[in-house]
Amino acid sequence: MLTAFLWVLFGYLCGSIPFSFIIARLKGIDITQVGSGNVGGTNVLRSAGAFYGILSMILDVLKAFIPTFLALNFSGEIAYFVAFFTVIGHIYPIWLKFKGGKGVASTVGTYFALNPTLALIFYLIWLPLVLTTKYVSLASISTLSIIGFISFIYSPKLGLLNVLLALISIYKHRSNINRLLNKTERKTDIIEIFKNSIKK
């Protein structure tokens, strides 16, 4: 029991590392005070540029992947709990008074650890949606939901975990959903952001 608790605590603390906040600070930006105010890769992408945004997203993926992968090699059962709490750590980080991101990149990190095929499917769905609609929020919650149900093909436990993570992320996106319904949600042109970053 103590071992399981320590693994879960390890996962939560890893997930709590606010890479988006730290990376933005390197550019002299307080990510909580600009753009959407969300401590996530998309806000860094918009506010600091492609390099910093992509770096933030990669690190957010890794902080969930590493503890989940390590736990998986220790015990498959514990790995599911570790995966869950890495995402909870990202969304409710102790270091930022429990005000974090929306859990998308960290959830993908758990996909890479528990079933890499799901991570590939995620990007194959998410990227075209972002490029065509330019709504990162819509692409994210749609793809997380799809992956949640697809996961049941592999195992009920994985399906349950990924549906739960999708629901939590959808809850965190509730303000985005309201803006989507009101047609006031901000669009993100990833290609344009990359072009501007190259010019700089």
From TrEMBL:
Pathway membership: Lipid metabolism; phospholipid metabolism
This protein's UniProt keywords: Acyltransferase, Cell membrane, Lipid biosynthesis, Lipid metabolism, Membrane, Phospholipid biosynthesis, Phospholipid metabolism, Transferase, Transmembrane, Transmembrane helix
Domain of life: Bacteria
InterPro entries: G3P_acylTferase_PlsY
Pfam families assigned to the protein according to its UniProt record, in alphabetical order: G3P_acyltransf
Catalytic activity: an acyl phosphate + sn-glycerol 3-phosphate = a 1-acyl-sn-glycero-3-phosphate + phosphate
Principal cellular location given in the protein's record: membrane
This protein's GO CC annotations: plasma membrane
GO molecular function, one term: acyl-phosphate glycerol-3-phosphate acyltransferase activity
EC number: 2.3.1.275
GO BP annotation list: phospholipid biosynthetic process
Transmembrane annotation, as ranges: 6-24, 44-66, 78-96, 108-126, 146-171
Family to which this protein belongs: Belongs to the PlsY family.
Record's subunit section: Probably interacts with PlsX.
PANTHER family associated with the record: GLYCEROL-3-PHOSPHATE ACYLTRANSFERASE-RELATED (PTHR30309:SF0), INNER MEMBRANE PROTEIN YGIH (PTHR30309)
Function field: Catalyzes the transfer of an acyl group from acyl-phosphate (acyl-PO(4)) to glycerol-3-phosphate (G3P) to form lysophosphatidic acid (LPA). This enzyme utilizes acyl-phosphate as fatty acyl donor, but not acyl-CoA or acyl-ACP.
Name of the protein described by the UniProt record: Glycerol-3-phosphate acyltransferase
Organism of this sequence: Marinitoga hydrogenitolerans (strain DSM 16785 / JCM 12826 / AT1271)
Lineage, highest ranks first: Bacteria, Thermotogati, Thermotogota, Thermotogae, Petrotogales
